[in-house]
Amino acid sequence: MSDKPLHPEQAKEEVSPSVAEGLTSDPDELEEKFPVGPDGSDVLREIQTVRYVEGTRIPVASFVAKDDDDTAWLAGDDRVQRGAVISYPQKVVDAIRDGYICIRCQEPQVEGAFPLHCSLCGFEMRELQASVFAAEFEGEVHYGPSLAIQAAVEAHMIEQEKAAHERKLAEGGSPMKGLRHASQD
């Protein structure tokens, strides 16, 4: 995967149709889709209008985000990202809390609540979403992942791997089974 950002037209091929619908690089199109009054109230009114993924009762993730200069987080490809404070309508918060929207990429999970992994970004929703939600949300505001939270999640995953390894050993399984010596290749 490249570190270069995708052009919006390329990005549209990588995301769900409902997300692709909102992507644009044309400032005039942005102003037309999301007119902003002098006080920003039009934006707030727009995100409070809940739309649903076609054929479901899962809301499309609409939000207002602002930069958070005090936090950073690591993307799955080890890029450091600036933090954001994201405000959602209550129905979207409920869907994230209930496992119908991925907390990391906001992708609706149409196959049901808390799938094993997010259908778009691969986040371990069944295992981690509830605890990450508890750590990162306050009311309708998502303070996002930070390096400290990510370190805790990674430590949890390492502990799970260690426990699985210990179970395998306790059951008589060999940690070396299935490995091949370099000279066998």
If you had to describe this structure to a student in words, what would you say it looks like?
This protein has seven helices and four strands. A hairpin with a 5-residue loop joins strand 1 (64-74) and strand 2. The protein has helices spanning 8-14, 17-20, 27-33, 41-48, 90-97, 125-136, 147-170; strands at residues 64-74, 80-87, 137-138, 141-142. Strands 1-2-4-3 form a four-stranded antiparallel beta sheet. It has 185 residues and is α+β, with helices and mostly antiparallel strands. 15% of the residues are buried. Helix content is 38%, strand content 12%. The protein folds into two domains: 1-33, no CATH class; 47-147, no CATH class.
Quick recap of the structure?
The chain is of the alpha+beta class and 185 residues long. Helix content is 38%, strand content 12%. The relative contact order is 0.10.
Topology:
Layout: H1 8-14, H2 17-20, H3 27-33, H4 41-48, E1 64-74, E2 80-87, H5 90-97, H6 125-136, E3 137-138, E4 141-142, H7 147-170
